């Protein structure tokens, strides 16, 4: 049974905008964003990174536009990019205008850094005429000083007020093709700010915990903030801000949406048991090897690596494909049914071969082609393991006897 729909709050409906070919808001799929770390003026290096980000799951990529050479680079990047490009603008109004001239599909303006109303309205009018959306990208670390002072800090209310003031400037020139972010490095502040933004605006919201830091802590902070809001139905697009290769950001965004059932699985979902005293193999090593070998296939399947044959196939019966270790052999299973028994050192290769066959022939055909003796062989392995380790490793019968004895009086 698919419980996704009832597990998450209904998605809050926002007005829809289009960042090039990618719709954001309304009923559009929640999109994943990331940002290049190359010099935008270095067109080839930037394009190479954009392709890597798109391959890892990014729907939209942002590049900094901080100097004329960057804007000129954008003019060459935009037509060759596989995904829409957003130019990131701080401080210089002329860079926003140059990025629009370069043909970008979106702008991000930081209201804390680009402060003159007449300049903000100039950019908004130009974006309006070109049909290019703008993200009002408020950031707690660079909040407008007047607002900071008025609210006594970068509070959730202050972040939302900054967005509201910027939006009012845009509306003065008849421009509302806008998405909004109110990011903070504090997860609690960010959650509160987005909740408030969600009840204040009907524009699409771009989620993120800013400056979340290196892995794995950055990933945890980003997930804590973004997933909490998504579960409440808040958010239309997202970016993890990690101090890491941006490919990790795109991958994390994609995987989070797939894990929550908000996007269809595009690639491998490798599940593995945490291992325990019953494990017959180094689960971490086999899982890592399987992850590396299977990820290259780019197949949308769920694969399980389980440490023992006693519990493994049953616990992972929902997986498309899996392997469980036992007595120097691996039990290959499809949707919980044993289809083949292979030597331990061929476990990973067996998974790869079978994954390719499932992709080519389908699950039903591969189940029909199973080795008919495999289930009996597997049952014998399980029986041997239970004999060797004992079905009752805790000596429960003696312990119960002892408990009864002690509690008799
Ligand atoms: S599958 Fe086996 S080895 Fe892995 S955690 Fe479960 S009982 Fe332990």
Measured between the Cα atoms of the first and last residue, the distance is 49 Å
Task: Write the CATH fold name of the largest domain.
Answer: TIM Barrel
Beta strand count:
15
Bound ions, cofactors and other small molecules, one mention each: iron/sulfur cluster
Give a quick account of the main beta sheet: strands, pairing sense, barrel closure.
Answer: 8 strands, parallel
Describe the 3D structure:
There is one protein chain. With 409 residues, the protein is of the alpha/beta class. The protein folds into two domains: 4-259, TIM Barrel; 269-389, Sulfite Reductase Hemoprotein, domain 1. The protein has 16 helices and 15 strands. Strand 5 (85-89), helix 4 and strand 6 form a beta-alpha-beta unit. The model has no long low-confidence stretch (mean pLDDT 93). It binds iron/sulfur cluster (SF4). Iron/sulfur cluster is lined by residues 273-276, 278-279, 306-308, 311-312, 315.
Task: Give the helices and strands, then pairings.
Elements: H1 4-7, E1 17-19, E2 22-24, E3 31-35, H2 43-56, E4 60-64, H3 68-77, E5 85-89, H4 93-102, E6 106-109, H5 117-130, E7 134-139, H6 145-151, H7 156-172, E8 178-183, H8 187-200, E9 206-207, H9 217-231, E10 237-239, H10 246-259, E11 269-272, H11 283-295, E12 302-306, H12 312-315, E13 321-326, E14 329-334, E15 337-343, H13 347-361, H14 363-368, H15 374-389, H16 396-406
Parallel strand pairs: 3-4, 3-10, 4-5, 5-6, 6-7, 7-8, 9-10, 11-12, 12-13
Antiparallel strand pairs: 1-2, 13-14, 14-15
The structure holds iron/sulfur cluster (SF4).
Iron/sulfur cluster (SF4) binds at residues 273-276, 278-279, 306-308, 311-312, 315.
């Amino acid at each position: 049974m698919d419980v996704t729909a009832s597990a998450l709050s209904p998605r809050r409906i926002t007005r829809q905008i289009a960042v090039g070919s990618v719709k954001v808001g309304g009923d559009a799929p929640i999109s994943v964003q990331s940002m290049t770390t190359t010099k935008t003026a270095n067109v080839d290096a930037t394009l190479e990174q954009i392709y890597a980000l798109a391959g890892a799951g990014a729907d939209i990529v942002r590049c900094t536009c901080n100097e004329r050479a960057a804007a000129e680079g954008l003019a060459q990047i935009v037509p060759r990019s596989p995904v829409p490009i957003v130019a990131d603008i701080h401080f210089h109004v002329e860079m926003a205008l140059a990025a629009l001239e370069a043909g970008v599909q979106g702008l991000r303006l930081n209201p804390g850094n680009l402060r003159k109303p007449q300049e903000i309205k100039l950019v908004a009018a130009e974006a309006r005429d070109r049909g290019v959306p703008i993200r009002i990208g408020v950031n707690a670390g660079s909040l407008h000083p007047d607002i900071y002072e008025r609210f006594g800090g970068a509070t959730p209310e202050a972040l939302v007020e900054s967005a509201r003031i910027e939006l009012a400037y845009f509306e003065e020139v008849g421009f509302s093709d806008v998405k909004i972010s109110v990011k903070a490095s504090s997860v609690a502040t960010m959650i509160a700010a987005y909740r408030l933004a969600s009840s204040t605006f009907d524009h699409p919201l771009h989620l993120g915990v800013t400056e979340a830091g290196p892995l794995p802590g950055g990933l945890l902070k980003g997930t804590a903030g973004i997933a909490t809001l998504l579960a409440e139905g808040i958010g239309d697009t997202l970016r993890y801000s990690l101090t890491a290769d941006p490919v990790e950001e795109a991958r994390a965004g994609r995987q989070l949406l797939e894990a929550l059932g908000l996007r269809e699985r595009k690639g491998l979902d490798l599940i593995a048991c945490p291992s325990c005293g019953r494990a017959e193999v180094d689960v971490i090593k086999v899982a890592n090897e399987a992850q590396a070998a299977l990820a290259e296939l780019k197949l949308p399947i769920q694969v399980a690596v389980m440490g023992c044959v006693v519990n493994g196939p049953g616990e992972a019966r929902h997986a498309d494909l899996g392997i469980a270790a036992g007595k120097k052999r691996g039990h290959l299973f499809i949707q919980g049914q044993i289809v083949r028994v292979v030597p331990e050192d061929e476990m990973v290769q067996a998974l790869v071969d079978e994954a390719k066959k499932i992709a080519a022939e389908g699950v039903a055909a591969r189940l029909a082609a199973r080795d008919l003796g495999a289930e009996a062989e597997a049952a014998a392995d399980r029986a041997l393991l239970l004999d060797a380790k004992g079905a009752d490793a805790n000596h429960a019968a003696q312990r119960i006897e002892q408990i009864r004895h002690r509690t008799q009086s």
